[in-house]
Amino acid sequence: MNNPQSMSEEFLQFIWESRLFYSEDLITTENNELEIINQGKRNMDSGPDFFNAKVKIGDTVWAGNIEIHKKASDWQKHNHHVDKAYDNVILHVVETNDMQVPRSNGEIIPTLILDYPEHLRKNYKNLLEAKTWIACQNHFHKIDPIILQLGFNRLMIERLEDKTKEIFARLHQNNNDWNETFYQMLVRMFGFKVNAIPFGLLANSLPMPILAKHKNNIFQLEALLFGNSGLLNNQLLGDEYFLRLRDEYSFLYKKYKLQAIESHLWKFMRLRPVNFPTIRIAQLAALIYKSHGLFSKILELENMDTLKALFKVKASEYWNTHYNFNKISKNTAEKELGETSTNILILNVVIPFLFVYGEKQNKHHLKNRALEFLDKLPAEHNSVVTKWHELGIEPRSAFESQALLQLKNHYCKTKKCLNCHVGAKLVSAPENQNH
Predict the structure, then answer these.
(1) Cα 427 from Cα 217, distance rounded (Å)
(2) CA dihedral (378, 382, 388, 391) positive or negative
(3) Contact at 8 Å (CB) between 221 and 244?
(4) How far apart are CA 48 and CA 88, in angstroms?
(5) Is residue 431 one of the residues assigned to a domain?
(6) Is 190 helix (H, G, I), strand (E, B) or coil?
(7) Residue-number span of the structural domain to which 24 is assigned
(8) Model pLDDT for residues 129-187, shown as the tens digit of each residue
(9) What is the pTM of this model?
(10) How many structural domains compose the chain?
(11) pLDDT (tens digit, 9 = 90+) per residue, 175-202?
């Protein structure tokens, strides 16, 4: 018999969905024999918890919905007794039966007191009370690696869907202009974490059609980008390149009625010089110069090496000897967009866009290509992935490292163990296996 200590409604739904309850010789509270033919499918929207269920009560087979509560009185507490959406509930499943439950017409709904093995409650309680980095850390090694691998696909699709929400929102703002939306998100990602906000503001202040008019002139592209970044306003005097840029921007500023963003938004502190926003803006100019219509080109590419070649750009010659305006650097080198930076741009912009475009245009081969590209990118290196390494999980690609990030951030952090394929296995494990 289950422990009288009540568990959450979510836990009871998990027990029901997974058929972990005692299902032999069932009797309703009205003393009728009960057989669960089909427990139904979980309803993630409003309304009863499970739909399309089938049960046999006495000699009659019923098809309809199932509602689950900790206490039978929760039915009225939740106002189901006046909601006609609950009139087709064929069985009320509860942990504690403290009243008879009526439909809106007054008919009594058959009720089952859910009985399940005590160790399931203990398994779940142990996870909820765990103080480790992830709740199942002390039992994680018991999970078959194949089960973990099978869960990666679902986690990765979830992560892509989370990322695509912002794309859909921006598409709506841009009147379904794919090129402008791609440009805005690509430019923002050029700031990576530290300068994402000012790069995003820069993209919003300088629409792609304006840059497209100067796509064959790298100097004018730099003037537009540096000018609207506000970085040309920091000083009155400077070297020849700086002054020429400022003069060019002054003309373009008036021509297009532009509005520069505030220069103080840019962050240089605690960044390696190669990651300074000045270098990133120059590389962005080079990318626009080299790859006009970048999004259209990306849609046509099937090979990862060819895709990476699109992003193989370097800042203009001035930046070989500079990291900041008007200050010659002791170290001279070409400022090429590196492999790691390219991978981040592909991971966070290109792949989600391919997935969304494939979804929106009903082109499933693009969604599949997005997943294939993920599998060809190397696994990320960050604090979360490092912790998974310590638990013996070594992602072989960005596909798997992204799945692990999704697992940690959306399940482990909030202890949604019942919704996790690993947690669900551990909760439903046989008695003594997790103790």
Answers:
(1) 62
(2) positive
(3) no
(4) 9
(5) no
(6) helix
(7) 9-116
(8) 999 999 999 888 877 878 788 888 899 989 998 888 889 999 999 999 999 999 999 99
(9) 0.84
(10) 2
(11) 999 999 999 999 999 999 999 999 999 9
